[in-house]
Amino acid sequence: MSRKRSSIWDEAWRTHLWRKDREQSSVSIETQSRKFSLKTVTRATTLSSVLMKNALQKRVRCIILYATETGKSKQFARTASEVFSLAFFAQVFCMDAYDVADLENERLVLFVSSTFGHGDPPGNGEEFAKALEELRKLEEQRKLEVQRSKRWTCDRLKPETTFSTGNGKLENLRYSVFALGSRCFPDFCAFGRYLDTMLHDLGAERITSLAEGDDIGGQEKSFRNWVQEVFKSACGIFQIGEKINARKVRNSLTEADHMWRASKFRIVSLNKANEEDLCEALSEVHHTSVHPCKLVDRIQLESSQSR
Question: 218: how many CB neighbours lie within 10 A of its CB?
Fold first, then answer.
């Protein structure tokens, strides 16, 4: 009896957790890392992606279309997408990868495009421009046919009556255009202006007026001002319920700021680099062929009296 009792007490003494030990054990359990199987992690990842997709689909869709030759418009389009992702379901497409016919089903579209040559669209925006022109011709033909049919029906009753042909093919679309260009050329931002006029003629509604960015100076600042203005106007038009902090918008633009500043970049001397290496690097950055050239002569074409 004595041995059994002693063994019971001995076992209780060994297994009892004092208050201090319980507090330490709870802390260690909370801080202890848990191990999950690959199957569990996969299920959790799939579930989170589905929930995120459903949440994004409930937002208003915002399409951002760009056309570019050097990649600058693509860079700006992605920055705009980061800002609009704070409140919208933002997606970025190149114009040659988007069907113009789908504009009829969109509610919000932003356009970011440069101008190439003598007022022409960039190479990846040519087909989009042609399709947009065909869409306008079809819309003009439709309006003319509707107007003729109504006049034929009611002309005898009231000849002076004017007839409405509707707001246009894209009457449910809100849009805004940011055009890139250089004032060194006479057709400054011509393609951006073309897009703005064409969409307006098709019945789409401007969120903000056309914004232009000059490559000579201030282009980045003009773009930042445009994005903030369009984002604020779009949130008001679509009555976004979420309270979007203006600081988040500014932070998104600051993180995507590619302007050169001495505090952001480091200059390293490349004395050993030859011209071929430099041209190869520039070709990769600007997505075009760069070749070394020597300046033979410089002639002032403008007379001194014109200044």
Answer: 11
- Neighbouring residues of 28: CB distance < 8 A, sequence distance ≥ 6: none
For strands 89-94 and 108-114, give the pairing.
unpaired
pLDDT tens by residue, the chain, 307 residues: 444 444 444 555 555 556 655 555 554 544 445 566 776 667 667 756 655 555 555 789 999 999 999 999 999 999 999 999 988 999 999 999 999 999 999 999 999 999 998 889 999 999 999 999 999 888 888 878 877 776 655 554 444 444 344 467 899 999 999 999 998 888 999 999 999 999 999 999 999 999 999 998 889 999 999 999 999 899 989 988 555 666 666 666 666 555 555 666 666 666 655 555 778 888 887 778 888 888 898 888 777 775 5
Q: Is the dihedral of CA 261, 265, 271, 275 positive or negative?
A: negative
For residues 112 and 75, give the distance between their C-alpha atoms in angstroms, rounded to a whole number: 10
